[in-house]
Specification:
14 helices; single chain; alpha/beta; 6-stranded mixed β-sheet
């Protein structure tokens, strides 16, 4: 049993205080807990606030995403979990143990329970794939037979058993990241931190790495915490997500909820590349008012996943009346919930525009009038 799952071994690292038990009894299932965490750096022009008032709970076994634009504080936040960064204020609890007072020996033990993979792989170019993975075990004094067994298992897990003698220069970007993942797992961690782990990879390779991380999460049951600036990564792998902006949490929740109905401008901006846009040829034809009795009303209707059932298009057509045409759009399923946008035109309806909008909101509350086309 690992240190972070064994109360006796955890107590040996940092005894549980009565204060911790009393303050947060409702969060005993949270594996990682941030309580009022802030981080300030001293810059040439004065203090730089990287994190401010972070309050967050990450549950055991979930894949948790942290997203934000460059400079939002993502790296600072994730690096406080293994104390590569020391918070300026606040507390970080792992399985309800405050790691803020850990000495060097305790931090070494903690970091062996927290694996980390990086954007640029950080492999040693003069060592083979096998040697890169084995090195941390050697440093920890693990006997040779155990090292051999563990490295063999991990290279098989990440699909690189046939590359064990290769050097990093002989590998593709995806293969290098697989080595990084294997290396991060050598001490059987409970938590895996991913620092922009797919940002240097092409889309096809990114998909394969995300599939591998999901398989590891399901097979080993470890918690994965990843930071990224790509909403597609969050969509494809995460259970929950938090959005950072200028060091503060501006939005958080289940992935389907944040994707389906983002509330903050930053979230909406990050989601823009994934959203269905109005075709250019339609956009240039749109008019703000009907210029002809034959003009059709164009509506954008957003499906947010609040209803787990597939959207009933026949019900939509019935409430709108007249002739309804689907111009653009699509529905995908995220965490089993339908999300997407439909752009439709309505003509020959017995209802005026205001009535059509009200009736469309019986189908979804998220309705936008885009204009009119002939």
């Amino acid at each position: 049993m690992s240190a972070l799952h064994n109360p006796q071994r955890l107590d040996a690292l940092a005894p549980r205080s009565a204060e911790q038990s009393v303050l947060h009894p409702e969060l005993n299932n949270a594996q990682v807990r941030f309580i009022g965490v802030s981080k300030t750096y001293e810059g040439a022009q004065g203090p730089i606030v990287a994190l401010e008032g972070i309050d967050l709970a990450i549950q055991r076994g979930e894949i948790f995403g942290i997203i934000g634009r460059s400079g939002a504080g993502k790296s600072s936040l994730i690096r406080t979990i293994n104390r590569l960064e020391q918070p300026s204020s606040g507390r970080i609890l792992i399985d309800q143990i405050d790691i803020g007072g850990f000495d060097e020996d305790q931090l070494v033990a903690l970091r062996r329970r927290i694996g980390m993979i990086f954007q640029h792989f950080n492999l040693m170019s003069a060592k083979t794939v096998w040697q890169n993975v084995e090195l941390a075990l050697k440093v920890a004094g693990v006997p040779q037979a155990q090292r051999h067994r563990k490295v063999s298992e991990l290279l098989e897990l990440v699909g690189l058993a046939d590359k064990h003698r290769a050097y990093p220069a002989q590998l593709s970007g995806g293969q290098k990241q697989r080595v990084g993942i294997a290396r991060a797992l050598v001490h059987d961690p409970d938590i895996l931190l991913c620092d922009e782990a797919t940002s240097a990879l092409d889309p096809e390779t990114t998909e394969s790495i995300l599939s591998l991380l999901q398989a590891i999460n399901q097979r080993l049951g470890l918690t994965i915490i990843l930071i990224t600036h790509e909403m597609a990564v969050i969509r494809d792998i995460c259970d929950r997500v938090v959005v950072l902006e200028r060091g503060r949490i501006v939005e958080q929740g289940p992935v389907w909820q944040v994707f389906g109905a983002p509330t903050h401008d930053v979230s909406k901006t990050l989601l823009t590349p994934l959203q269905t846009s109005v075709p250019a040829e339609l956009r240039v034809r749109l008019q703000p008012i009907p210029v002809s009795p034959r003009a059709s009303l164009v509506l954008a209707l957003r499906v947010t996943g609040s209803d787990e059932q597939a959207p009933d298009l026949s019900a939509l057509f019935n409430v709108l009346g007249g002739r309804v045409s689907l111009l653009q759009g699509g529905i995908e399923r995220i965490q089993g919930r339908p999300l997407g946008q439909l752009v439709v035109s309505v003509s020959d309806s017995p209802h005026d525009t205001d009535t059509l909008v009200k009736r469309a909101r019986q189908w979804t509350p998220h309705v936008e009038v885009l204009g009119y086309v002939v």
